[in-house]
Structure to design on (556 residues):
């Protein structure tokens, strides 16, 4: 597939926002039950909540660039009964509103914080499910059609969110930074395990479709001689990333390095140096890595329609 | 339940692209809006076509066959492009099974194109909505046209009658008969989309010619086709004497 940067930014931004909310809410709830030290400064939660909401809004704005008619984007909520994209269009504003209300409630010191947080948690998890199911439900794209897609979206979003929370905690809740940094490192490591599993699965995939099934001629040797036109078309642009195989491999190593290896190192350095700038650097590096990871995820899918568009003449 | 569809005969398609051009001509002049056709004689031409004819070579040279392969939306009975559409612009008509796009609702998110394994849907570069073969729904129900013309433009344009149109759920229709008798098949059956359009396979027609059919076995005058002229006194039975 041809990765659209609007979709890359959408999914990485909202993933980070959702992960940030999970980081805030988990420590909030754990603190109230005395499982971890309570965060003294409410500004941490307020700032975090609005940052998560801002990431969500940025992601939503980015997604509009993917549409041919963004002014009709509101129609996309219509088919929630059948379409995961439609469900995401409902879950994303629900999450943004929920996390804003959570931040407002914290700012006002309201007791509605926990129930609002719980509702936002539901919206957050639903949003993870919807976003990943958009890709996983297309059974023809075998690279995407796996539970690993759901797991990876959740873990990568959570890891980036926790790294961002660590950076925020470095400034506003320093007593929690060890907890957050450790959690971020653990989540990043776990995300690496599952992303590696996904890479391994995709490397071993056997395509179900072939030219034989595509044109229905049972012969061992079929080759396309002409795709029917010499210019480009939507079919030749939208379904192929346009990068040489070596470039694709390079992007893979870049994202492994920037999403998993470097952030863990920078988080560890930040803990050792007790300086919040390392945490911020860890998030920045991880975000760049996530952009590469999402690009690679979208690029790796091989659409069966490509069988019909192999050769100009 | 009616399911209108096309049956494409790969045995007689010569790859002339008449169906491609007639489809484009009909649909680009319609009320739904013109189809993109950028730089057709310049560099990097591009455009939207509902129907494309591709060419495949089967076999190893020199024992090869050239197969011309027209492909347009297959109007699947279980279309994967319909449930994924977030706005409901992509829908399958219950009365005749044609899968259509409502251009007023389509937001151009391309999700349906991702979901179609055949690459039948294209985003029009100018109108920014998804477009695909409509089975000439504006032709087949048009009462202003003579009933013999109420067929898709591509079916009427094909010089070798390689395209047939009809109801595949009606066992007596031309298309059902062709599928049944000629072994019509669907594309990529492994994905379970149950396409309505079928393709008829190549078959080899053989004609045995005996030597006797070319050269007369008995020729008493040793002349080809000439008998002696009748005597004038013989009765005139024209068909016997001049035969």
């Amino acid at each position: 597939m041809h990765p659209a940067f609007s979709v890359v930014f959408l999914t990485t931004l909202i993933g980070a926002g959702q992960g940030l909310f999970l980081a805030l809410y988990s420590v909030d709830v754990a603190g109230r039950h005395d499982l971890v030290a309570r965060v003294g400064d409410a500004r941490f939660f307020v700032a975090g909540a609005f940052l998560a909401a801002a990431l969500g809004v940025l992601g939503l704005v980015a997604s509009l660039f993917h549409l041919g008619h963004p002014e009709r984007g509101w129609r996309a909520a219509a088919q929630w009964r059948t379409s995961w994209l439609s469900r995401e269009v409902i879950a994303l504003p629900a999450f943004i509103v929920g996390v804003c209300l959570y931040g407002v409630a914290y700012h006002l010191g309201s007791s509605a914080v926990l129930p609002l947080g719980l509702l936002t948690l539901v919206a957050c998890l639903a949003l993870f499910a919807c976003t990943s199911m958009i890709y996983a439900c297309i059974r023809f794209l075998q690279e995407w059609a796996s539970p690993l897609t759901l797991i990876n979206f959740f873990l990568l979003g959570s890891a980036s969110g926790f790294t961002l929370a660590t950076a925020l905690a470095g400034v506003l809740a320093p007593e929690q930074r060890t907890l957050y940094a450790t959690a971020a490192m653990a989540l990043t490591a776990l995300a690496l395990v599952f992303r590696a599993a996904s890479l391994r699965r995709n490397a071993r995939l056997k395509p179900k479709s072939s030219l034989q099934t595509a044109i229905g001629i049972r012969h061992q040797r079929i080759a396309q001689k002409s795709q029917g036109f010499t210019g480009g078309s939507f079919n030749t642009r939208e379904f192929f990333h346009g990068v040489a195989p070596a470039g694709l491999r390079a992007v893979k190593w870049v994202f492994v390095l920037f999403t998993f290896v470097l952030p863990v190192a920078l988080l560890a350095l930040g803990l050792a140096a007790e300086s919040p700038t390392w945490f911020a650097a860890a998030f920045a590096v991880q975000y760049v890595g996530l952009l590469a990871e999402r690009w690679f995820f979208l690029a790796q899918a091989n659409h069966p329609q490509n069988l019909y568009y192999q050769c100009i003449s | 339940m009616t399911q209108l569809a096309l049956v494409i005969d790969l045995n007689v398609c010569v790859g002339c692209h008449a169906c491609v051009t007639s489809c484009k001509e009909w649909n680009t002049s319609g009320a739904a809006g013109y189809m993109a056709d950028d730089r057709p004689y310049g560099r990097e031409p591009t455009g939207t076509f509902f129907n494309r004819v591709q060419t495949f070579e089967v076999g190893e040279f020199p024992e090869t066959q050239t197969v011309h392969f027209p492909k347009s939306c297959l109007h699947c009975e279980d279309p994967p492009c319909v449930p994924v559409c977030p706005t409901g612009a992509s829908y399958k008509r219950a009365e005749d099974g044609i899968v259509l796009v409502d251009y007023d609702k389509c937001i151009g998110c391309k999700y349906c194109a991702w979901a179609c394994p055949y690459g039948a849907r294209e985003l029009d570069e100018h109108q920014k909505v998804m477009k695909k073969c409509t089975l000439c729904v504006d032709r087949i129900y048009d009462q202003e046209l003579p009933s013999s013309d109420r067929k898709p433009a591509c079916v009427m344009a094909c010089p070798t009658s390689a395209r047939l149109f009809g109801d595949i759920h009606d066992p007596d229709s031309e298309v059902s008969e062709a599928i049944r008798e000629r072994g019509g098949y669907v594309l990529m059956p492994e994905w379970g989309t149950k396409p309505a359009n079928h393709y008829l396979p190549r078959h080899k027609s053989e004609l045995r010619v005996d030597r006797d059919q070319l050269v007369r076995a008995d020729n008493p005058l040793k002349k080809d086709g000439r008998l002696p002229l009748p005597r004038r006194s013989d009765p005139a039975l024209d068909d016997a004497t001049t035969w």
About this structure: Residues 5-215+232-308 of chain A form a domain with the Formate dehydrogenase/DMSO reductase fold fold (CATH 1.20.1630.10). The beta strands of chain A are 222-226. Chain A has a mean pLDDT of 95.
